[in-house]
């Protein structure tokens, strides 16, 4: 059974259609990249998958998450499915983190929620051990210091690592990562991508990785869906999309990536 499947997913703001007729599916452990230029509808698609569209936007069609229909269901019915199955990492970890709470207090929230779902009570000692283990899992040096810090007191890369640790603390089956490295400098981007790649592999997670950057997507996903102007224009295995892109928009994306490689002297 698919973990996530969409069929004819459309999103409207009044009479304006922002996303149209999107369909794809993810089985447990699959890694799908959703690529497209800014404004093509990637983020709205991701939000609609979890029933998290902002007010004023309306989704139609079908989204099934772990067998449950998301579209048209009230949030109180979707929230437990969402919490048990999926977690999301965003472009700007500052938006996902509370600036007035220490990172340790924020990390405690999903750890406690997970323990409660498993019917366990955590002692202060257990909670601390789990917080440290969660930060070690995302390769944070000096976890004690990071737990005591507020978000502005650590680097952008460390903030994103904490956000990833919080997402994984829910023990999801599916991780949705929306431009998770775009706000980071180039060397930190590479480190966070390598970390995500390792964690997804080790935990056997399904991954929906969203980016405007086709080479980045190609490095982490097995299949790619290319979006342009609110529609999926092409879907296929990464190697096939690179070697024989059919849609003119995909051809242009690949040509642009190759020109950049040439300019940087990365291709011979
Ligand atoms: N709340 C909203 N109300 C109306 N239109 C919106 C709203 N949010 C997004 N849009 C519009 O929907 C379209 C798709 O936006 P979306 O954020 O999904 O694009 P994206 O591909 O994720 O782009 P980016 O990479 O820049 O985040 C854009 O034209 C955007 O302006």
TrEMBL record:
Topology term for the membrane: Peripheral membrane protein
Record's keyword terms, sorted: ATP-binding, Cell membrane, Membrane, Nucleotide-binding, Transport
Q: Where is the ABC transporter domain?
A: 4-254
Q: Which InterPro entries match?
A: AAA+_ATPase, ABC_Ni/Peptide_Import, ABC_transporter-like_ATP-bd, ABC_transporter-like_CS, P-loop_NTPase
Q: Does the keyword Nucleotide-binding apply?
A: yes
**Top-level taxonomic group:** Bacteria
Return one GO MF term: ATP binding
Main localization of the protein described in the UniProt heading: membrane
What is a single cellular component term in the Gene Ontology annotation?
plasma membrane
Q: Where in the cell is it found?
A: Cell inner membrane
Q: Which PANTHER family match?
A: DIPEPTIDE TRANSPORT ATP-BINDING PROTEIN DPPD, OLIGOPEPTIDE TRANSPORT ATP-BINDING PROTEIN APPD
| The family this protein is said to belong to | Belongs to the ABC transporter superfamily.
Write the protein's name: Peptide/nickel transport system ATP-binding protein
């Amino acid at each position: 059974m698919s973990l996530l499947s969409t069929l004819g997913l459309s999103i409207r703001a009044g009479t304006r259609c922002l996303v149209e007729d999107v369909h794809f599916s993810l089985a447990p452990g699959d890694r799908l990249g959703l690529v497209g230029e800014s404004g093509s509808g990637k983020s709205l698609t991701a939000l609609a998958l979890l029933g998290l569209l902002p007010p004023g936007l309306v989704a139609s069609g079908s989204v099934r998450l772990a067998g449950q229909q998301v579209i048209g269901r009230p949030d109180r019915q979707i929230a437990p499915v969402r919490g048990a199955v999926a977690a999301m990492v965003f472009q700007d970890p500052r938006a996902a983190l509370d600036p007035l709470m220490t990172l340790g207090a924020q990390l405690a929230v999903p750890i406690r929620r997970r323990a409660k779902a498993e019917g366990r009570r955590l002692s202060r000692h257990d909670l601390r051990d789990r917080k440290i283990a969660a930060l070690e899992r995302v390769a944070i040096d000096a976890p004690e210091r990071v737990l005591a810090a507020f978000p502005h007191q650590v680097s952008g890369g460390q903030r994103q690592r904490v956000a990833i640790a919080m997402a994984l603390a829910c023990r999801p089956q599916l991780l949705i990562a929306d431009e998770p490295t775009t706000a980071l400098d180039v060397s930190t981007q590479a480190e966070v991508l390598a970390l995500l790649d390792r964690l997804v592999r080790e935990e056997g997670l399904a991954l929906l990785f969203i980016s405007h950057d086709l080479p980045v997507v190609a490095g982490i996903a097995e299949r790619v869906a290319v979006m342009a102007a609110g529609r999926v224009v092409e879907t296929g295995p990464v190697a096939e999309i690179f070697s024989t892109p059919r849609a003119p928009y995909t051809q242009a994306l690949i040509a642009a990536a190759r020109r950049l490689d040439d300019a940087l002297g990365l291709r011979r």
